[in-house]
Amino acid sequence: MTERSGEELKLGWIGTGRMGVQMVTRLLSGSSPVIVYNRTRAKAEPLGALGASIADHLWELGACDVVCVAVTSSSDLEQVLLGPAGLLSGESRPEIIVDFSTVGADASAHVRRELAAQGVALLAAPVSGNPNVARAGKLTMAVSGPRPAFDAVSGLLAQLGAGATYVGEGETARLVKLCHNLFLGVVTQALVEVTVLAEKGGVSREAFLRYLNASVLGSTFTRYKAPQLVNTDYRATFTTNLLHKDFDLGLAAARELRVPLPLASLVQQLVMTLVSLGYGEEDFAALLELQGRNSGLEVASEQAEVPDGLSGSQ
């Protein structure tokens, strides 16, 4: 397949959860036709109102040139692609499947082999960012798999975010994303530690984070997490359960490659504690809550207007 823009591709999409719905919305706003499938059809129907076609069966997407997948787990990926009622259960096959999910390398390699046997190329393209980042068009992604397939969909990937980096063949993108999420957890824990230290010393979280975000240590991440930390808003953009899953996968990779990760190992225990306290389905920003407890500080919403840095006007 030669490189074509999203408008020229017949595009299918599997999975319209929090991330998927924002990514498809971006494609539709760019006038790309998309046929979508979600196990719970009601979650896909808002996209129908925006111009997407909604499939009743996964095999209907087999007639597309490219099918994108955004699901939660390795088992979900295998089920939607290889299951008895999955994408490959019909007669038609897409040329390329782009998987935006964060799943294990072993499961991805198994899916890759099965697809290759039927002439379908798989690109692993786990995304970095949450639904708000996706809405703002600032997602980034590491991509691995056949280079010609990457080149063919580069225009499509450009519509979805701020950059897609080709990192090699096979499952290398899976490792890159796990490294990213290990760093995400470690940085977040460091951020909540110094924020609680400042608050216990008499500095509001809003003032401390405003200072930090204007400094050389401020980043897109610290800015878009600031409203949640200031206002103790733990509505999920990325759940603690999902972060815990990625820490398990990342530390397993580290053991296999014999790379010691002392900081990540400690943060894994803190994330596990947060899950055990009932915060599994809340945003991992709730690490602030755990740090407050451990510091003898009751954190509460400061009810302050805090920019998230994702809007050009902020």
CATH T-level fold name of the largest domain: Rossmann fold
Distance between the termini: 41 Å
Shape: globular
How would a textbook summarize the main sheet? 6 strands, parallel
Spatially, the strands of the biggest sheet line up as: 3-2-1-4-5-6
- Counted beta strands: 9
> Radius of gyration in whole Å, from Cα?
20 Å
Q: Which CATH architecture of the largest domain is right? A: 3-Layer(aba) Sandwich
Main CATH class of the largest domain: Alpha Beta
Number of domains: 2
Helix run count: 12
As a percent range, the share of strand residues is 5-15%
Structure description:
By secondary structure, the protein is an alpha/beta fold. It folds into two domains: 6-170, Rossmann fold (3-Layer(aba) Sandwich); 175-294, N-(1-d-carboxylethyl)-l-norvaline Dehydrogenase, domain 2 (Orthogonal Bundle). The protein has helices at 18-29, 45-49, 74-82, 105-116, 131-135, 147-160, 172-200, 205-214, 220-230, 240-257, 262-279, 287-294; strands spanning 11-14, 34-37, 53-54, 66-69, 96-99, 121-124, 127-128, 140-144, 163-168. The strands form two sheets. A six-stranded parallel β-sheet has the order 3-2-1-4-5-6, with helices on both faces. Strand 1, helix 1 (18-29) and strand 2 form a beta-alpha-beta unit. Helix 3 (74-82) runs parallel beside helix 4 (105-116). The longest helix has 29 residues, at 172-200. The chain is globular and about 65 Å long. The mean pLDDT is 93.
